[in-house]
């Protein structure tokens, strides 16, 4: 299979439990909860996306003809050194494109594979770190994983229900919108009230990283 990738880059994972870790990011093109066009945002299931994921024209992006081509590009961004190789598959919605071939090829290059997904498609069992970020109005079928990262506040979210899902870590990430400061305060309030949750800040934005 070929893969449509919006962009690829080496950075630090900015969010969640792995924040601060050196990582190659692969941003797959396309999402099942928003077309990516601004004129569709108001009517999309997911309305707050902070990411451009349409097309393959970003830095390091492109159409990769097969899994080996994509895995070789990821290894190229990592560079020399085989220790602690870490790749984050994101998007768009990465589970629209992730298959056995890309998981096997990345493992063969020595990478530990993390994924950021909206959870509406069952995660590939070969992924080493599953991060699910539920969106109100969607049906989350992937209710197990390493990290559940809830963007907050999100109207229509049943947080009591989410707490019953089988995730090793529960994280709240402030919604980045014009009310960002109030959203951060709401997250702190909620963590103070519910100690099973932890705060996840988008540290790459604070640092000016990609
Ligand atoms: C762009 S999404 C791509 C992966 C997948 N489609 C998903 O939603 O999890 C990557 C992460 O950014 C989060 N995110 C997107 N827009 C955000 C915003 N405005 N504020 C805070 N987090 C946001 C998502 O919830 C998700 O955890
Ligand atoms: N540095 C950095 N960390 C991230 N963690 C999740 C991201 C994403 O867009 O999926 C992201 C991103 O875009 N950049
Ligand atoms: S599900 Fe993820 S990629 Fe899709 S629109 Fe929402 S935040 Fe963006
Ligand atoms: Mg991002």
Walkthrough of the structure:
By secondary structure, this protein is of the alpha/beta class. The chain has a single domain (3-207), classed as TIM Barrel (Alpha-Beta Barrel), CATH 3.20.20.70. 21% of the residues lie in helices and 25% in strands. It is built from 5 helices and 11 strands, in the order E-E-E-H-E-H-E-E-E-E-H-E-E-H-E-H. It has helices at 67-78, 100-108, 159-162, 180-193, 203-207; strands at residues 3-12, 22-28, 62-64, 86-90, 112-117, 129-132, 144-145, 147-152, 166-167, 170-174, 197-199. The chain has a 9-stranded mixed beta sheet with strand order 3-1-2-4-5-6-8-10-11. Helix 1 runs parallel beside helix 2. The longest helix has 14 residues, at 180-193. It is globular. The protein starts with a strand and ends with a helix. It binds S-adenosylmethionine, ligand 2KA, iron/sulfur cluster and magnesium ion. Magnesium ion (MG) is lined by residues 50-51.
Topology overview:
Layout: E1 3-12, E2 22-28, E3 62-64, H1 67-78, E4 86-90, H2 100-108, E5 112-117, E6 129-132, E7 144-145, E8 147-152, H3 159-162, E9 166-167, E10 170-174, H4 180-193, E11 197-199, H5 203-207
Helix pairs in contact: 1-2
The protein binds S-adenosylmethionine, ligand 2KA, iron/sulfur cluster and magnesium ion.
